[in-house]
Amino acid sequence: RGAVSSRELVKVYGSGPTAVRALDGVSVQFRAGEFTAIMGPSGSGKSTLLHCLAGLDRADSGTVHIGSAELTSLNDTRLTRLRRDKIGFVFQSFNLLPTLSAEDNILLALRLAGREVDRAWFATIVDLLGLRDRLRHKPSELSGGQQQRVACARALVGRPDVVFADEPTGNLDSRTGAGVLDFLRTSVRELGQTVVMVTHDPIAASYAGRVVLLADGRMVGEIYDPTPESVL
Ligand code: ADP
Ligand code: ADP
């Protein structure tokens, strides 16, 4: 249901002599219920891969499967629906709506989809992420770490099959970061979610069951049961 895979994914930015081959034929698989970290040097294509896997960006060639759906064959309407129903995405830059409260940001997508809000699950997420007394605040009234946690809550509240997270702990102090990672790990275990997280932090990566290594737009290795030392 929540398996994710790509085959020979290619993404080129620009054209001519200045073109950048951000993805140069990436074939990678993420099993349902697996928690994977993607690591690699800055510019190696991590964000581009995440965006293409999540259907936020279209690759130039190659295929992406989420469950039984092949993203590159879907039109925009179907792609939007698949993203809404199956995928949660934590953006590096949060992408919160400035005029809405934290609570409304977290629940907006469910409301737009006409889906019922599971208040117990909402409360669990809010408590685990330490957001209970911040729900009425607007993003501008929250610290970077709090905004990051709102972005995580928003991605998880609909219990998506697949969660993509771009540097989810990049703006958090280590204790709050550990809380978010613990929560992701628990959520994977209890809901059977597939989580794919981009990070450059070896400690964050050690929460995953597997690390996939990228360099120059290619997958160059993988490490199972990573420790902070083994991925440095
Ligand atoms: P990473 O996440 O590993 O830092 P990115 O996926 O952000 O890598 O970028 C991979 C390469 O593609 C880099 O050379 C980057 O400069 C380039 N790139 C990424 N996004 C764009 C864009 N929108 N336009 C042009 N080049 C881009
Ligand atoms: P990261 O390296 O962590 O992926 P970046 O700062 O490289 O983050 O990228 C942030 C945003 O800027 C992304 O949406 C990416 O697509 C875009 N971007 C990255 N490199 C370029 C570039 N050379 N030209 C235009 N946009 C870029």
TrEMBL record:
ABC transporter domain spans which residues?
4-232
Q: Which InterPro entries match?
A: AAA+_ATPase, ABC_transporter-like_ATP-bd, ABC_transpr_LolD-like, MacB-like_ATP-bd, P-loop_NTPase
A Pfam family per the record: ABC_tran
Could you tell me the keywords of this UniProt record?
Answer: ATP-binding, Nucleotide-binding, Transport
Tell me a Gene Ontology molecular-function term this record carries: ATP binding
Q: Which PANTHER family match?
A: ABC TRANSPORTER RELATED, IMPORT ATP-BINDING PROTEIN
Name listed for the protein in its UniProt record: ABC transporter ATP-binding protein
Per the UniProt record, the lineage of the source organism begins with:
Bacteria, Bacillati, Actinomycetota, Actinomycetes, Pseudonocardiales
